[in-house]
Amino acid sequence: MDKVVASAVEAVADVPDGASLAVGGFGLSGVPNVLIEALYERGVAGLKVVSNNCGAMESGLAVLLAAGRIARVTGSYIGANKEFARQYLAGELEVEMIPQGTLAERLRAGGAGIPAFYTPAGVGTLVAEGGMPWRYDGRGGVAVASPPKEVREFDGTEYVLERGIRTDFALVRAAKGDRHGNLVFAKSARNFNPLAAMAGRVTIAEVEELVEPGAIDPDAVHLPGVFVQRVVALTPEQAADKRIERRTVRD
């Protein structure tokens, strides 16, 4: 039952080239930076990443992206990540853009054993009709486009069929975790982390505070340990390393 491993490098030691990863975080919040750095150090490449965005401010997944280690991204947001946009438009990176709520539900559904579901999000758009550029050819043309999806009517409203997502591994960051893998996420870090953790066949969690089993009130658990296979305890310095993407202040 003790799922704690000695280091982040040991925790990701069996992640192979070409693996699919569900990665928690939103912007700079709740990003498993230490596990991502460990993957970078190992030199793993050809990764297929499922995450809301692909890192920012040269941190998080942006580290792997800049090194050319990511082959495909399923996400909702490119934002101000210029390298993400450059690789996509140059045909170096395959990108499946989907509505943010749909991404969240596809991860949750995959983790819950639901193969597919219907949603109204995307009906009447390229999301349902197909033709969204997944990969450009580097010359302004589209090399790979999204296929059309099934659309079905329920009670007079059209819905598009979306597939649940399962990945080989999941990387998440929690504020607190015990040795059994029960996790608690702090504030906005409780964004895509629980959903990403559910979607991974092997889920690895880096935790800012490691406690003994029983120290977390069962009512306070955000993600039960049944979804987590490995736990990495961060050092105080690693736990305190939290960046701010945009600082807004008043005089």
TrEMBL record:
InterPro entries: 3-oxoacid_CoA-transf_A, CoA_trans_fam_I, CoA_transf_BS, NagB/RpiA_transferase-like. It comes from Streptomyces fuscus. This is CoA transferase subunit A. Keywords: Transferase. SUPFAM superfamilies: NagB/RpiA/CoA transferase-like. Belongs to the 3-oxoacid CoA-transferase subunit A family. One of its GO terms (molecular function) is transferase activity. PANTHER family: ACETATE COA-TRANSFERASE SUBUNIT ALPHA (PTHR13707:SF60), KETOACID-COENZYME A TRANSFERASE (PTHR13707). It holds the Pfam family CoA_trans. It comes from the Bacteria. NCBIfam families: pcaI_scoA_fam.
